[in-house]
Amino acid sequence: MIRSLVWALLALGLSAGVSAHEVRPALIQVTQRDAHHFDVLWKQPVNGDVALHLVPRLSGGALDREPDVNTITPSFALRHWRNLSDNEDQPLNGQTLSVAGLERSITDVLVSVTLLDGRTIQQILTPRQPQTTLDFGAHAAPAATAYLKLGIEHILTGIDHLLFVFGLLLLVREPKPLFGTITAFTAAHSITLAATALGWIHVRSSVVEALVALSIVILAVELVRHAFGRAGVTTRYPWLIAFAFGLLHGCAFAGALAEVGLPSQAIPLALFLFNVGVEIGQVLFIAVASIALLSLARLLRDPPPWTRLIAPYAIGSFASYWFIERFLLAIASNGIPST
Length: 339
Prior knowledge:
By secondary structure, the protein is an alpha+beta fold. About 50% of the residues lie in helices and about 15% in strands.
């Protein structure tokens, strides 16, 4: 059974190496200029020089030519096609919009279509559903489902955030303190999400992501101390570290959506619904993880003492790798001044 646990943690680490990379959504923004002309903006997140090979396409072939603007920043690659034409034989309405390569990624794509009458139709493309049919007659309300789904998928594919929550579960096993700790974490990242929505704070995602990894390293150290019976501040007041680091995680959640570049009037609602989706995904993860821990405790009634260190060392090792990787990326993208 111990061997099975080790292999399970190893598998988690391999998946962590993949999932800890690009989970920020991309954006396709279609703006109708007149009855037969439109603009298309493609905004894809990048990490320094690293970018997934994603290619937006329309079935009518309008995006097959070179874009009018092709810009790469430390955080995003931007491609802008201006004044594209459609005709009666191939109107934009009814064409298939797809993203080649999306099915091989863990990235979602927000699709926002702004029509002449002011309506905005929003939906989401995923690796499992990398294409959609443009329908200008659709209701302008599917954004709620899109952002909720995006929040759920973001937390469930964000292995770094899940490892932090898992670490809290390992640190606090009693139901009442655990509820208070998770509530503090939820309250904290809800505060930073709200502050971002109102424009009170502005975060640089490369720096925040590095600090998120560092928070997991610190939690892993506290788990090791706890395994040796050394009660620190984190053990005595777990809600405190959950709240403090929850502020960081909230900035990362907000940055994952706000930096996509949605219209400013859509950001507050998007962040709220995104946060609700994050909470739904978090509750699902806590329920599954709690059941798994209880089942494991019943199977391993008297495990060797060293087994208590497997999870903390695994979590700390993965988080240390992410911190170094993200710290170097932050410096490369001028997110952290180098001396």
